[in-house]
């Protein structure tokens, strides 16, 4: 039918409000398609007397048409507005949603400004078709394009939270579809999303670890390990404990460390894997036990020697060994003369970074704090204790944050007045370090956990070394000043 004839028919339909004039692309004669396009163009640009009550027009499949009437809502594929309208109108129709998402993906490949409106529509399509592989395959790719780089930071946090929850659903629903998993991983690999957006981080960590177990692509492996490392640091103690109890997870991370160590490579994948293991074992005795049972200790001893000149690697290795040394029932596993001699050499070496020497000192302080459990020679223990004190008094406090603590419980045994000065000095130096860098957080923790009483006892005891008394008093002064500032602020708020 010619455009003129069609327009005449339309002019008789005064009450028509919704018109579907889409093209299914099946027509053999392309002239019909061109005639239809011309009809739509004239309809949009023509007299308001034709279809005066029309409020929506579906021209899907007609790439040559853009809307000219601002009062009409047009669904199609010529531009963003038409595609978005299609997603709104046909949310419950899987095939339409899929096609609209494909066109949207092509339109937003180079998007450079935040589009929360589009993200909401993509999310709606995913939620309406939770088991459709075709929808989720394209939708997850759209999510990545809409949240990449700095775009996510301008989105509402609640929208991002819902989006990540939906990504996790996609990962869980399609565990064996590599491209869906890859799209979700790409979208998750954002510092802002991982750090600031609320979602089920335990579930996310489990899903990414499961994915990691069957994929060895170096780029994706790096992203997966980075995501896991950040997520583990964000888990609650209860969630960390559950994760650390899983032998499978420990083996996966250790396998990556071994893979990198075999070729002595230093890259972000290795660093993230070491960080994840470090966080998993932090005040988690079961995870530390699993680490040992998975031959992690033997692997770490080898890596310590082969990465002797890499302080960033050494620090992460020693940090985990420090976690093991905090667990009394596991200390015997560390009492190997060759290992302790190596750690002692790191403590003594003035050319080694303070961060490395700090964790070396922590391991040795914990192991020498219990003479009844010491199974090596007395001379070695005496040498370690002397070197602890001699080394620590030379350390300069680093400006950057070097370590954080969940609690000060592991320090209780080290702060007893009966301990050797080297053990006490390491503990008070450590507490002074973190209090100096985050006074508000750690001052409250010291008070709450009763550590200030231990420090007061140390400062008052006649046999306490002057170096330890001085540091203890400085910590107590920081706590007192913080309490004074907090009290003043509270009074001002109440007045």
Give a short overview.
This protein is mostly helical and 495 residues long. The chain is 65% helix and 2% strand. Residues 490-495 have low confidence and may be disordered.
Topology:
Elements lengths: L2 H9 L6 E3 L9 H16 L10 E3 L14 E3 L4 H10 L4 H14 L8 H13 L4 H15 L9 H17 L4 H11 L2 H6 L4 H12 L5 H17 L2 H8 L2 H16 L5 H13 L4 H9 L2 H11 L4 H15 L5 H4 L2 H12 L5 H15 L9 H15 L28 H17 L1 H10 L2 H10 L5 H29 L1
Helix pairs in contact: 1-2, 3-4, 4-6, 5-6, 5-7, 6-8, 7-8, 8-11, 10-11, 11-14, 13-14, 13-16, 14-17, 16-17, 17-20, 19-20, 20-21, 20-22, 21-22, 22-23, 22-25, 23-25, 24-25
Cross-sheet strand order for the largest sheet: 1-2-3
Low-confidence region ranges: 490-495
In round numbers, the mean pLDDT is 90
> What fraction of the residues are assigned to beta strands by DSSP?
under 5%
* Largest sheet entry: 3 strands, parallel
| Rg value | 32 Å
Quickly give the structural class: mainly alpha
**Total number of helices:** 25
- Strand tally is 3
CA-to-CA gap between the ends? 81 Å
Task: Give the overall shape.
Answer: elongated
User: What is the string of helix and strand elements?
Assistant: HEHEEHHHHHHHHHHHHHHHHHHHHHHH
The helicity comes to 55-70%
Describe this protein's structure.
This protein is 65% helix and 2% strand. By secondary structure, it is an all-alpha fold. Among the domains are: 78 residues, no CATH class; 83 residues. Strands 1-2-3 form a three-stranded parallel beta sheet. Strand 1, helix 2 and strand 2 form a beta-alpha-beta unit. Helix 11 runs parallel beside helix 14. It is elongated, with a radius of gyration of 32 Å. Pfam families: ZER1-like_2nd. InterPro entries: ARM-like, ARM-type_fold, ZER1-like_C, Zyg-11_UBL_adapter.
């Amino acid at each position: 039918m010619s455009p003129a004839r069609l327009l005449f028919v339309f002019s008789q339909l005064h009450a028509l409000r919704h018109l579907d004039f889409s093209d299914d692309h099946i027509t053999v004669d392309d002239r019909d398609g061109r005639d239809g396009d011309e009809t739509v163009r004239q309809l949009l640009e023509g007299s308001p007397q034709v279809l005066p009550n029309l409020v929506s027009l579906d021209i899907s499949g007609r790439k040559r048409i853009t809307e000219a009437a601002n009062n009409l809502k047009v669904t199609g594929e010529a531009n963003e507005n038409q595609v978005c309208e299609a997603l709104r109108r046909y949310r419950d129709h899987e095939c339409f949603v899929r096609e609209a998402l494909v066109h949207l993906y092509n339109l937003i490949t180079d998007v450079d400004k935040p589009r929360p409106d589009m993200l909401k529509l993509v999310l709606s399509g995913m939620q309406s078709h939770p088991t459709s592989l075709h929808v989720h395959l394209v939708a997850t790719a759209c999510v990545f394009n809409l949240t990449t780089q700095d775009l996510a930071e301008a989105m509402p946090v609640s929208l991002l939270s819902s989006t990540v929850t939906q990504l996790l659903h996609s990962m869980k629903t399609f565990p064996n579809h590599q491209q869906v998993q890859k799209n979700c991983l790409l979208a998750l690999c954002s510092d802002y999303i991982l750090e600031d957006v609320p979602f089920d981080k335990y579930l996310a960590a489990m899903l990414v670890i499961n994915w990691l177990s069957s994929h060895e692509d170096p780029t994706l492996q790096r992203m997966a390990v980075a995501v896991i490392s950040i997520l583990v640091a964000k888990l609650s103690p209860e969630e960390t404990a559950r994760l650390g109890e899983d032998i499978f997870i420990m083996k996966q991370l250790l396998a990556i460390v071994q893979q990198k160590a075999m070729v002595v490579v230093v890259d972000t994948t290795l660093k993230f894997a070491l960080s994840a293991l470090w966080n998993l074992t932090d005040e988690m005795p079961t995870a530390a036990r699993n680490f040992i049972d998975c031959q992690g200790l033997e692997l770490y001893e080898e890596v310590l020697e082969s990465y002797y000149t890499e302080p960033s690697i050494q620090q992460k290795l020693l940090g985990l060994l420090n976690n093991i040394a905090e667990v009394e029932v596991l200390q015997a596993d560390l009492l190997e003369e060759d290992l302790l001699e190596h750690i002692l050499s790191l403590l003594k070496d003035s050319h080694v970074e303070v961060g490395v020497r700090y964790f070396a000192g922590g391991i040795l302080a914990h192991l020498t704090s219990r003479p009844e459990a010491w199974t090596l020679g007395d001379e070695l223990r005496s040498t370690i204790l002397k070197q602890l004190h001699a080394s620590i008094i030379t350390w300069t406090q680093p400006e950057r944050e070097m370590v954080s603590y969940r609690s000060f419980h592991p320090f209780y045994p080290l702060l007893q007045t009966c301990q050797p000065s080297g053990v006490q000095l390491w503990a008070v130096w450590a507490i002074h370090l973190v209090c100096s860098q985050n006074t508000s957080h750690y001052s409250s923790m010291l008070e709450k956990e009763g550590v200030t009483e231990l420090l007061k006892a140390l400062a008052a005891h006649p046999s306490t070394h002057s170096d330890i008394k001085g540091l203890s008093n400085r910590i107590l002064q920081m706590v007192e000043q913080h309490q004074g500032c907090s009290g003043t602020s509270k009074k001002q708020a109440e007045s």
